[in-house]
Design brief:
Layout (H helix, E strand, L loop, with lengths): L4 H10 L10 H6 L5 E5 L8 H6 L4 E5 L19 E3 L4 H9 L5 E4 L5 H10 L16 H10 L7 E4 L2 H11 L4 E5 L9 E3 L2 H11 L13 E5 L4 E10 L2 E15 L2 E9 L7 H14 L5 E10 L2 E8 L8 H8 L3 H10 L1 H7 L10 E6 L6 E6 L1 H8 L4 E6 L6 E2 L10 E7 L2 H14 L4 E3 L9
Parallel strand pairs: 1-2, 1-4, 2-3
Antiparallel strand pairs: 5-8, 6-7, 6-8, 9-10, 9-12, 10-11, 11-14, 12-13, 14-18, 15-17, 15-19, 16-18
Helix pairs in contact: 4-5, 7-8, 11-12
């Protein structure tokens, strides 16, 4: 007798499982013999992991570290999973997962890192362990772990008292300084402060608020400002063997106390400072106990050498797999899946290696000073952008009815565009044209509620 979706859902619920919406019972049953990878909190670019594992014949199961899904980020596509495990204690979750004999547990986004560490440890799977989990999420503990290991790092202080933070900056007497939350991302709450007044204002703006991961900011971090060019650095590790997936130089501009992303460009892997950054990143990852999985770091090359801003034990937030395949000869999601699914192949093909720079490329994050409600997207402007010779991908971040605000961080950027072309001149010309068009992509309502001309 055929099992109905409803009855299977009930059976799953009784045993601590959920069949994701739209998942076919027949598909689930036929897939039961396939190996399984567990993904924890696969938000945003974590959505690139299920297809990467699927290409290698691996099914995925989703675990969430919170009672409710975090709606501040792009949600996991649960239809891509064999099943979803309801929220529970690590021990309960591990017991449910043990039935599947998973090959790995991978964090899909920042909040999932501690739980992924704990589950891999409970299940006896390759992982980074729990001893340094806090240092892989808490930015203060992260830098202190580097300091203990003798790795170059920033000066810093944290407190739940605004005046204590101000006093640290005054005693140090070397501005600017950086004020930010302990455990957020996407430049959420980060301020570059050039005076006592700016430190106080920035600290007050963070303390007691909730970050993008729905975590309360009970303390604030203040650090020395690292002077130099900033780079995004992505790795994949397996058993301490590593592959550098890409290094991109950030181009930012200062707006008040905020450094806004403008665009990123590929750094040639064999030209300085790439080799120095790669060597330094091995020290950082060793100091943080990261021997497995993907990592995404920000590094500033100071006069003293590369120095860590922060690192996340998860995929890059800027990952666009097909774009990275074209530009770098591979992408971090695919390499991560290969490392866990076929470790020997990863070690043979990638260990100790680096990405390639196959073309000129840049990733634009559009900023704005506009403030209002989006009436519509101007499709003629979008069509003009998409028709530019080097445009690979255009991703709007707003739709009709959404509020557009002056850009202060990654989450208030208005759209993303990925450009690549064999000619650097073509990329530069298209970049310049997009800057001219950026505030014409969205048409805003006027005060009467009509679309503004």
């Amino acid at each position: 007798m055929a099992t109905s979706y409803q009855s299977l859902q009930a059976d799953l619920a009784d045993s601590g499982w959920r069949l994701p919406p739209g998942r076919k019972v027949e598909h689930m049953k036929s897939a039961e013999s396939r190996p399984v990878a567990v993904l924890v909190d696969a938000y945003t670019t974590g959505n690139h992991l299920p297809p990467a594992f699927a290409k290698l014949g691996i099914d995925v199961v989703h675990v969430q570290s919170t009672p409710e899904l975090m709606t501040s980020m792009r949600l996991p596509d649960l239809t891509a999973y064999r099943a979803a495990v309801p929220y529970g204690t690590p021990a309960e979750t591990a017991a449910r997962l043990r039935e599947l004999a998973p090959i790995c547990v991978v964090a899909g986004q920042e909040p999932g890192v501690p739980l992924a560490d704990e589950l891999s440890e409970l299940l006896g799977l390759p992982g980074n362990g729990t001893a340094l989990s806090a240092a892989r999420r808490d930015k203060y503990e992260m830098i202190e772990a580097l300091r203990r290991a003798g790795v170059r790092c920033a000066d810093q202080f944290k407190s739940d008292n605004v005046e204590a933070l101000v006093s640290w900056a005054e005693r140090r007497g070397d501005y600017p300084v950086v004020v930010k939350p302990l455990s957020s991302a996407a430049t959420d709450g980060v301020a570059i402060c050039g005076s006592v007044e700016e430190v106080r204002k920035a600290a007050e703006a963070v303390l007691g608020t909730v970050n993008i991961f729905h975590e309360r900011n009970d303390e604030v971090l203040i650090q020395s400002f690292l002077q130099g060019e900033e780079y995004m650095v992505d790795f994949v590790s397996y058993d301490g063997e590593r592959y550098a997936c890409g290094i991109w130089q950030y181009h930012k501009r200062l707006k008040g106390t905020h450094r806004l992303y403008d665009r990123d460009s590929i750094t040639a892997p064999r030209s300085s400072p790439a080799p120095e950054i790669i060597a330094y990143m091995h020290e950082v990852l060793d100091a943080l106990g990261i021997q497995y999985g993907p990592t995404h770091a920000e590094i500033i090359v100071t006069p003293e050498g590369p120095t860590l801003v922060e690192v996340g034990a998860r995929l890059s937030g800027g990952l666009v797999p097909d774009f990275h395949d074209v530009c770098l000869g591979g992408n971090q999601a695919a390499v991560t899946a290969l490392a866990y699914a076929r470790p020997r192949e990863f070690l043979d093909r990638y260990a100790g290696g680096t990405y390639r720079k196959l073309t000129h490329a840049t990733w634009i994050l559009a900023s704005t000073d506009l403030d209002g409600v989006v009436e519509e997207i101007d499709q003629d402007v979008v069509a003009e952008i998409k028709a530019l010779p080097s445009v690979h991908t255009f991703v709007p971040k707003l739709g009709p009815g959404k509020r557009i605000r002056p850009t202060v961080d990654l989450y208030t950027a208005t759209f993303a565009v990925h450009l690549c072309d064999p000619s650097a001149d073509v990329v530069e010309r298209d970049y310049a044209r997009i800057q001219q068009l950026r505030d014409r992509v969205y048409r805003l309502r006027d005060d009467s509620g009509r679309a503004a001309a």
